Amino acid sequence: MDDLYLDNIDEFVNDQNKIVTYKWLSLTLGVHVNLAKQMLYHYLDQKRKEGSARLHATYLVSGKFVENGTTSHKVSVVREDQLEDAKSKMSLTVSVHVYSVQKAVLKDSGPLYSADYDAVKENLRNCSRYSAIRCADAVPRSSAEVQQACETTQAPPPETEQIKANHSNLASKPTSKQPKGIMGMFANKNVSKNQDSSKEIKLEQKEVTPVVETSKTKPAPKTNPVTNFFAKQAASKYFNNPISHTVGRTRYFPLDSKTKRLEHSDSEEEKNESRRKKRRRIKKPEPDSSDDEVIPDSPPQLQEKRDPSPSPEIQVKKEPVAVSHSDVSFHI
Amino acid sequence: MLQFLFLTFETFASYHSTLFVFSSLSHQKMTTLTRQDLNFGQVVADILCEFLEVAIHLILYVREVYPSGIFQKRKKYNVPVQMSCHPELNQYIHDTLHCVKPLIEKNDAEKVVVVIMDKEHHPVERFVFEISQPPLLSISSDTLLSHVEQLLRAVILKISVCDAVLENNPPGCTFTVLVHTREAATRNMEKVQVIKDFPWIVADEQEVHMQEPRLIPLKTMTSDIVKMQLYVEERAQKAS
């Protein structure tokens, strides 16, 4: 039994050319995630020693990160060649483990998300079966509670609309900005595209906030499994972060505060870009800071934030958590 | 007897890139339909053309036909995909597929091929999408669309990792799209110009056939409404 898994992984990676993430492996083989991570590590180790196949791996690194004097906890998924670089940037590395193993060199993080999308979706009801994170209070709601929550969702749309209106200024890319590099060549034609993309952001926000109103704990699958799945992924992000293991912290992060932080960080980036000279060369896309999950170390006011639809003033003052929509973050 | 089409149109129209959203089609319970039910044929053609558009963009990204700077992450089938922002490129791909759509509707398109050519216009890679639609479409479940979405997602994933089984392309590659049709479909194409100033011409033998290609299967998908097979024909020696 001990070495059979190596053959299994070999088949997945080499014969089927799959991207084997630790999560997918744990769901497929029915083992705990930590065991899956070790399996991947051993497989990688063995193959490298044999020198047989060219394999590539991605790693999940998490640790303390100091930026402009503020310390935050950063979790990111990096390619193997950027691993040492990522570790050196952190003041304290809390954990490093293999995230995935595959034959191909991944140019971006998209396939990593697609790789376990179906497996996770199938196991939505018991996705924490093999997980290392437990919360005794997190139980699915009964259908009566879900109904009630649905009704209350219909009520505060004017409030959420107002919040979105405030943040649409941050979210929509200002058309006066000069996009760098090759994107600058499409500047004239970018106007409607930006409007489209800002609509897309708003659309995603709309998707996220109603689900937050209904549940903060693991939601029972309802009529719209897609948005549920989205919320589930986002919710599990908190639980994956080792530092917010304390029950109080994890449950009080409303989702929309995160998305707003995302918009905020984007707008700061854009202002910086507009100040720089417009360049005509084709530039490699810069690592998107919004790809990282950055959680600032506990300012105490975070604990108060329990209501799902906070007023805009509170939004501006506090230092909310930044999060990306995808389950993983990736440095390119 | 197969006839080939080859697109050579060089000048592009200006275009604003569209936002790709997987349109949720009606979930009416349908039983058995024949190909004559054109509405459904249109629906299948819509799905396939949307998919081909995403696939072509992804192939251009993964095979580095164009620099990665022009690509942007978008969402399709609930997963991130890379799509180009270049308006003229998008217009070209869009128009190409717009012309292909009527062929798919009538089940006249046998294969859609994305050919990547080197500087001398010799093909180095051919991504072949073989499409076949069953004559009798029996749609029985509401979950058909999410099932099809799942299958298309799997094909997209396979394209993302095709780097592992293919050799690197030489720099300065270009691409083109060929359509292999059944029988007399092209005669109608010539009569009716689907898009103004966007002519299709018969393909060169040189572009269509590769000498002794390596065949690499990527993915096969079978669903109630369409069967698709994706494989790559690769030239043995790519660097010229």
TrEMBL record, chain A:
Tell me which GO cellular component terms the UniProt record holds: cytoplasm; delta DNA polymerase complex
Report the protein name in the record. DNA polymerase delta subunit 3
Has keyword Nucleus?
A: yes
Q: Where in the cell is it found?
A: Cytoplasm; Nucleus
- Which keywords describe this protein according to UniProt? Cytoplasm, DNA damage, DNA excision, DNA repair, DNA replication, Nucleus
Basic and acidic residues bias (residue ranges): 196-207
- Per its record, what are the GO molecular function terms? DNA-directed DNA polymerase activity
Domain of life per record: Eukaryota
Q: Tell me the InterPro entries matching this sequence.
A: POLD3, POLD3_sf
Kindly state a single biological-process term from the GO annotations of this entry: nucleotide-excision repair, DNA gap filling
Species per Swiss-Prot/TrEMBL record: Oncorhynchus kisutch
Compositional bias of kind Basic residues: 274-283
Primary location group: cytoplasm
Task: Provide an example Pfam family for this protein.
Answer: CDC27
Start and end residues of each stretch annotated as Disordered: 191-226, 258-332
UniProtKB/TrEMBL annotation, chain B:
Cellular component GO terms, alphabetical: nucleus; zeta DNA polymerase complex
- Where does this protein reside within or beyond the cell? Nucleus
Which UniProt keywords are present, listed alphabetically? DNA damage, Nucleus
Q: Which GO terms describe its biological process?
A: DNA damage response
Record organism: Oncorhynchus kisutch (Coho salmon)
Q: What is this protein called?
A: Mitotic spindle assembly checkpoint protein MAD2B
Against InterPro entries, the record matches this protein to:
HORMA_dom (IPR003511), HORMA_dom_sf (IPR036570), Mad2-like (IPR045091)
**Pfam families recorded for this chain?**
HORMA (PF02301)
Residues covered by the HORMA domain: 42-232
Q: Highest taxon of the source?
A: Eukaryota
